[in-house]
Design goal:
Largest sheet: 10 strands, mixed
CATH topology of one domain: DHBP synthase
Strand order of the largest sheet: 6-13-7-8-12-9-11-10-14-15
Number of helices: 23
Shape: globular
Bound molecules: zinc ion, fe (iii) ion
CATH class of one domain: Alpha Beta
Oligomer: single chain
Structural class: alpha/beta
């Protein structure tokens, strides 16, 4: 540790996220408290402090700068050196010294405890002010157009400070000193409630909104990164009506509650879950349901083992729940037809016409669209509001690259120095609006990071919008493009996050991605080392009878399994009520329109189809989620040791599928499927570890969202002395792909 300073003047250099987070006033207050003279300023590298005074007070300053930084700050390093005494009088915040200042935009957070206390304090001048915020909380990323992060560059620009707010903003002792988004009832934005025709509804907007919600109406409510559709989650008819209007048959709705305690009625919570729910980022947290949940919240997450809960993230939401603490609201993204989230007032009235009965609007624009983040345990399912634009640290400085992700759950990634920035969840690039959002996001991310990329990285699939965009981008800027195999990128994302450059065994358990050989991969055993990978093995392929449609109809995968088992003649009988069944049997027999895939996702579908869990999926991953839910409910069960064969590093799970075919009890079958799959994967990986001498396994792909599989894999590998790395900072699914693409590119640029 550092020696105590005897010098009576020191310079302290602080790096990290230290600008726009109240760091200078924090130092100012410390210096005043410790009776030190000097100054503090922002510069291109972070914050610099000059302090003079008693040696003990200087030591104390250094310690507290390190230990007591403001809540939104993240201190990476604190360097201290003695300097000449300058006999400075007083302590001041001085102007920035040029350079590239304030390159960081913070992430959006929920109102802090101090702001919430003021919000409900009748004596406070911001009592019930729906836009209350301070230096330590509130909107950031979603209200900032461009850098530097100053009020004129945010959507608060049209709201000049009143004299009171101006005084707070310029007073270093005030907790709103340089709070760029602060405002009050005199100078800030205003709420308004409109009916379905866009006409104003008289009265207090919060009280009227509550009245509508209680009456079973659907209200579009403007949030931080976009609109939500809200309704009373306890009213079956209302939730059913929302499903019908949104044309969303079964996909689960997230539910918002006023506090943690009512959540205990609906879900099992660990201490970590509570911490996540209450974290300033306020994600949706997926939690195991309690037995009564489906009856209490009918239609919110039908048939699924989990429900997504969240706590209020904006003062508006706090006001609603303050006045109705027992209320339970469906809070689902307002993204009609799978298009990007609605963010504008006029856009809401137009695009949500026929869905919302009323609109709770305000005149502070949402500049950047940002969905709710979804977390589950220690991992991410979707990473967006609250977490973007925070960096992921890389083990070393790398060249600037942009990676444009895949097709589904698209995100993009830009590297700068030893940092990687992954965009918010953009969505599936299957419609023009989503592709437009994707292109906006590329431009915005490059702008706020001030990066000129040297390489553009994309998936191998030539028909993705992202791939075509990358080709045009490369041509326009005369920079090289690089295609990266989908599952290589999945594994590389885990390596990047964990800073691993040594070889790993990668196990990609995924829906589908284009393989280097032109076939559909998705259950891969790879040897990955930096920019290089080798396909060591894969799951024994199953046919996709009918092509892509087989990915949405698990019964087709069950038929493919039956065919492979030599029981093709059973297909028509077993699926007698499926008109396509006899034709499917013929197609499989003759190999017509039945391409093969090694996808692990389709193996889950086959199991779900054989066990009769699900014939058709109404959203991606549904069959696998139901299967996991059944297995969890059934409880632990041993693996069947003769459920698999490994030949030439190809893992054949056909014996297991044969057992499932004869299984009477779907829950027992589901539990047994999970246990056997995990044991087989461990066996497969252990054999590869023995052959290659690599003891470290990286696992990724959409199937790793399955907690049962991930836990069994971890335990099984540990028992064989193998280490497992998984995605933690990003989702394991295609939402993390871009980071892996970028990591492959920077390693190939480095010649690794
Ligand atoms: Zn605050
Ligand atoms: Zn004001
Ligand atoms: Fe994938």
């Amino acid at each position: 540790m550092l020696q105590p300073f005897v010098a009576d003047a020191i310079r302290i250099r602080v790096t990290g996220v230290v600008q726009g987070v109240g760091f200078r006033p924090f130092v100012w207050r410390l210096a005043h408290e410790l009776e030190l003279a000097g100054w503090v300023k922002n510069d291109a590298a972070g914050v610099e402090i000059h302090a003079e005074g008693a040696a003990a007070a200087l030591n104390e300053l250094e310690r507290r700068v390190r230990d007591e930084a403001p809540p939104l700050a993240r201190v990476d390093s604190v360097w201290v050196r003695p300097v000449a005494y300058e006999a400075t009088a007083g302590f001041a915040i001085i102007a920035s010294s040029g350079g590239r200042v304030s390159t960081a935009i913070g992430h959006d957070t929920a109102p802090c405890a101090a702001c919430r206390a003021e919000l409900f304090d009748p004596a406070n001048r911001r009592y019930r002010h729906p836009f209350i915020t301070c230096t330590h909380c509130g909107p950031r990323y979603t209200v900032t157009r461009r850098l530097p992060y100053d009020r004129p560059q945010t959507s608060l620009a049209p709201f000049p400070f009143c004299p009171d707010c101006q005084r707070e903003y310029t007073d270093p002792a005030d907790r709103r000193f340089h709070a760029e988004t602060t405002c009050c009832p005199n100078c800030g934005p205003r709420l308004s409630l409109r009916d379905a025709a866009g006409q104003p509804i008289e009265g207090d907007p919060i009280a009227q909104t509550l009245a509508l919600l209680k009456a079973g109406r659907i209200v579009a409510i403007k949030g931080l990164g976009g609109f939500h559709l809200a309704c009373d989650a306890r009213k079956a008819a209302t939730v059913a009506c929302l499903r019908e209007r949104k044309q969303r048959e079964e996909k689960p709705f997230a539910v918002m509650l006023g506090a943690v305690s009512p959540a205990l009625t609906f879900a099992q919570l660990t201490g970590d879950d509570v911490a996540l729910l209450e974290s300033p980022e306020r994600p949706i947290v997926l939690l195991p349901k309690l037995p009564a949940t489906d009856a209490l919240l009918p239609g919110c997450a039908p048939g699924l083992p989990e429900i997504g809960l969240m706590l209020p993230a904006t003062p508006i939401q706090y006001l609603l729940f303050h006045d109705a603490p027992d209320m339970v609201l469906v809070m689902t993204s307002a993204n009609p037809h799978g298009e990007p989230l609605v963010i504008g007032n006029a856009e809401a009235l137009q695009r949500l016409a026929g869905i919302a009965d009323a609109f709770l609007l305000h005149d502070r624009d949402i500049v950047v669209r940002c969905d709710d983040s979804v977390r589950r345990g220690t991992g991410f399912v979707r990473r967006a509001r609250g977490y973007v634009p925070r960096k992921i640290s890389l083990p070393r400085a790398v060249p600037p690259v942009i990676a444009v992700g895949g097709w589904f759950k698209n995100t993009i990634c830009v590297t700068r120095g030893d940092e990687a920035f992954v965009s918010q969840h953009i969505g599936d690039l299957d419609n023009a609006a989503a592709c437009g959002f994707f292109e906006e996001s590329v431009a915005h991310l490059l702008h706020i990071l001030d990066v000129e990329p040297a390489i553009v990285v994309h998936d191998l699939h030539p028909d993705f919008h992202s791939t075509r965009f990358a080709a045009a981008f490369a041509a326009e800027r005369a920079i090289p493009g690089l295609g990266v195999q989908h599952h290589h990128a999945h594994i590389a994302a885990v390596c990047a996050e964990h800073g691993v450059r040594e070889p790993v065994l990668g196990v990609a358990l995924d829906g589908v991605g284009l393989g280097s050989d032109g076939t559909a991969w998705g259950g891969e055993l790879l040897r990955v080392e930096g920019a290089r990978f080798e396909r060591l093995g894969h799951l024994r392929p199953l046919a996709l009878p009918g092509g892509d449609i087989a990915a949405r109809e698990p019964w087709r995968m069950a038929a493919a399994a039956l065919h492979l088992l030599g029981r093709g003649d059973e297909i028509a009988r077993r699926f007698a009520d499926e008109p396509a069944a006899p034709m499917l049997a013929t197609m499989l027999e003759r190999g017509i329109n039945s391409p093969f895939t090694s996808s692990a996702g389709r193996l889950f579908d086959a199991a779900a189809g054989l066990l009769g869990v699900r014939r058709r999926a109404s959203f991606e991953g549904q069959a696998a989620m139901l299967l996991e839910g059944l297995a969890v409910r059934h409880g632990a069960i041993g693996a069947c040791p003769d459920g698999w064969r490994i030949r030439d590093q190809i893992l054949d799970l056909l014996p297991m599928l044969a057992h499932l075919e004869d299984c009477e009890d779907a829950a027992a079958g589901a539990a047994w499927f999970h246990a056997t799959l995990a044991a087989a994967l461990v066996d497969w990986l252990a054999e590869a570890a023995g052959r290659t001498g690599i003891r470290r396994v990286a696992a990724a792909g959409g199937c790793l969202l399955n907690r049962l599989l991930s836990a069994a894999l971890r335990a099984g590998l540990a028992a064989r002395g193998l280490e497992l790395l998984e995605a933690r900072a990003l989702p394991p699914n295609d939402g993390g792909l871009a980071l892996g693409q970028a990591w492959v590119a920077v390693n190939s640029a480095a010649g690794a």
